[in-house]
Amino acid sequence: MKHYLTGASLIAVSTVLSATAVHAQVDQIVVTATKRTESAQDIPIAVQALGEESLDQLDVDVFTDYLQQLPGVTAGGSGPGQGTIYIRGVASSTPTLTVAGVAGLAPNVALYLDEQPVTQVGRNLDVYAVDLERVEVLSGPQGTLFGSSSQAGTIRLITNKPNLDGFSAHLSAGVSFTEGGEMSNKVEGVVNLPVTDRLALRGVFYSDQRGGFIDNVPGTRDASESGRFRPAGTVRRNGVVVDSSQNGFQAGADLSGVNFIEADNLEYVEDDFNDTDYLGFRIAALYEFNDDWRLTASHARQRIESDGVFSYDPELPDPDQLSIQRFSDDELDDSYGSTAWTLEGRLGALEALYTGAYLDRNTEQTVDYSDYLFVGQYLPYYICDASVTYPGMAAPSGNCQAPNLYVNSLTNTTVFTQELRFNTPQDKRIYATFGGFYSDQKIEERNDFTYPGSILATGVGPFTPAGATPTGVGFAPNFPLPGSLVTDPGPFPEGVIFRNDITRTDEQFALFGEATFEVVPDLLAVTGGIRWYDISVDLEGSANSSFYNKGIEEDSQLGGANLTALYDGTSSVVIDGETVDLPDEGSADGVIFKGNLTFTPTDNLLFYFTYSEGFRPPLLNRPAGAGGIVPGLVETDDLTNWEVGWKTTLFDSTLQLNGNAFIMNIDNLQTTIFDPNIVNLFFSDNAANAQVKGVEGDFIWAPYQVEGLTIAGAFSVLDTEIEEILTATTAIAPVGSDLAHAPAFQGNIRARYEWPVGDDLNAYVMPQVTYSGSSWSDIVEINRAKQDAYMLVNFSAGVSKDNWRLDFFADNLTNKRADLNNFFGYDRYRITINRPRTFGMRVSVDFE
């Protein structure tokens, strides 16, 4: 099929305008969404793309910056390096620290850095967007070409490669000021250096210091607020009534004889305490062996250092202040190193490509865990004297220590991937892409849940006979079980009540292919795709505490009292009256398909129909069998997509209109659940069957009547619905309810007007409006919270001359609070928010 279209993808080229002798036209953008290099207007895929110039003019740097530009793409998470991407409303819940890696669901949106998949469980890689050629967003299942986590779509970050044509360099620096927050500044630099006529190097560096805007304000709390003392009929903050299974163990107890010691946070009070620094570099080399073969290799390193949190408490006395009360340090140190290589060339008529990559990521984090107080029915057991909580005792009396809890988390992740693929010539009536893929991901994670008050509680002891008077002070430190990270044979650090110390390994093999047959050349084509996969997920290590041990590796059980289970394939639990073996490995293999019909009646019109499938791999639950209902293995969830789409370039390439309509059915939707009445660990289950219906569209218009003007916009309309509830573990939102992170409407529009000023200068102005409707944060009833609709207004203006440019910008001009994520797991609203109104400027210089 010949390709003549010159359109770009949707909102991608909203800023680019090229003047001709006749009139301005929409510029084109080239993508590799089909693993071939093609114009975005020529491929029968719903693709959104932000080109290099658009990324620069929109000042896109980090994860949250992409989202404003991409209707239909949402995210959950709690700050830098902790985001999860959702496309087309295929979402159920958002993971938190305590599920982070080893127990988290595999993402259903794949993230790629060039040819390297960097999709990670629990914590998506927050790649700083410097010197990118483009960002591609492929909506809908892309599983045949991009694998298991491409269930709802794929996002690809394509970097600029070394260039043999000549020396070039770019330097930019900026400063900004946030209302009610701190100053931010950044500097970025790029150098392209041809060494010989066959070897070129390219280096990138960046430093971005982002000032805080959330205040940690003074406050106190004590253990009397624990869920242990919660009376029947209590209505949670989200309107859900506490039922009999969620009553506190000591609801209605006379607590007048208990001395509740307050935790205060004066040591941690600070204005604008959520600072974040991005620091990193990337270096790449290109070597051309001859006209047919070339090798590209790159190495990147990045470090994120972040303090505080990016959520606020809307129930504090001053609702106009972005504030929260935290009772321990919140710190994140997230760094990664990535080495990737791509060898590409020709074998006769075949285009051949081999690519591989190795990623090593280390994350150390401390998170205040004091909010667990509000739902933790067992919490007083660890920090109160036994005379307060010990069964069979008289009226409660004694001390309850301060509930200043925190978690220390250490996560090491390595990912090794390889892919070999081939393309047949595209000028034939039949052409194909086919290859093989391998991935090995290993996550080592240790979480230490620290309750400082447990050191001071008197009379505690899990093995005290019934009716006897407990003695002693504090819980005795436990000795770790053999696990993933434990090298010190000594006891837990002081105050550590729970330790999760687990290694998770995800290994994947796949063979894939797509072939196209031009039934009528240049008019009608049929494409079929297939992927065979074999995936295994394994857990080893232990989840244990100061009073019992729970092993996840054969022969790892040491001592212990209750809730002991082994993941060795032989232990079992009784669920719904049936004996069920606890697996030590989850696996899945199978085949997914894709079919496409493309109709191209003219050079400027393309229509397509697509059927495609996607899936996520299975996973194991750490607290398998808890309450007799938590499954040991969570099965794959499967998605089928039926889609029609159109891509049009009209009026001599001055107007581009793209769109699609789709229906997606989701079977065995995986979700993460936190229900402390079942177990105090997050776990997962196949929660429901659901359906998503939607329409997406975009336009870009460069009216020839007004030279220098470009107007662009995009929208997403979603109708999501839970059709059947599958799980018995906990209450899911009723049939007919919306899925999480699925606004019914999202859209944006922007205009850019450029004009000459005198003989030397060029100027521009660019206003932009972004709107997102309301949505829900979860499908689990007790964790479900409403996220309000919002509209954001941005404005930028600037001048340029020759090789330099000066930009001025105002982000969030109306100072609107956008609910990016609402975490309600601990019965308190914690709303992750956007940055308040920010003014800034940036200077950029190019060298050649």
From TrEMBL:
One of its GO terms (cellular component) is cell outer membrane. PROSITE patterns: TONB_DEPENDENT_REC_3. InterPro entries: Beta-barrel_TonB, Beta-barrel_TonB_sf, Plug_dom, Plug_dom_sf, TonB-dep_rcpt-like. Its main location: membrane. Residues 1-24 form the signal peptide. It is a multi-pass membrane protein. It comes from the Bacteria. Residues 428-813 form the TonB-dependent receptor-like beta-barrel domain. Keywords: Cell outer membrane, Ion transport, Iron, Iron transport, Membrane, Receptor, Signal, TonB box, Transmembrane, Transmembrane beta strand, Transport. Gene3D superfamilies: TonB-dependent receptor, beta-barrel domain, TonB-dependent receptor, plug domain. Residues 40-154 form the TonB-dependent receptor plug domain. GO terms for biological process: iron ion transport. It is found in: Cell outer membrane. Belongs to the TonB-dependent receptor family. PANTHER family: FERRICHROME IRON RECEPTOR-RELATED (PTHR32552), TONB-DEPENDENT OUTER MEMBRANE RECEPTOR (PTHR32552:SF81). This is TonB-dependent receptor. It comes from Hyphococcus luteus. The lineage of its organism: Bacteria, Pseudomonadati, Pseudomonadota, Alphaproteobacteria, Parvularculales.
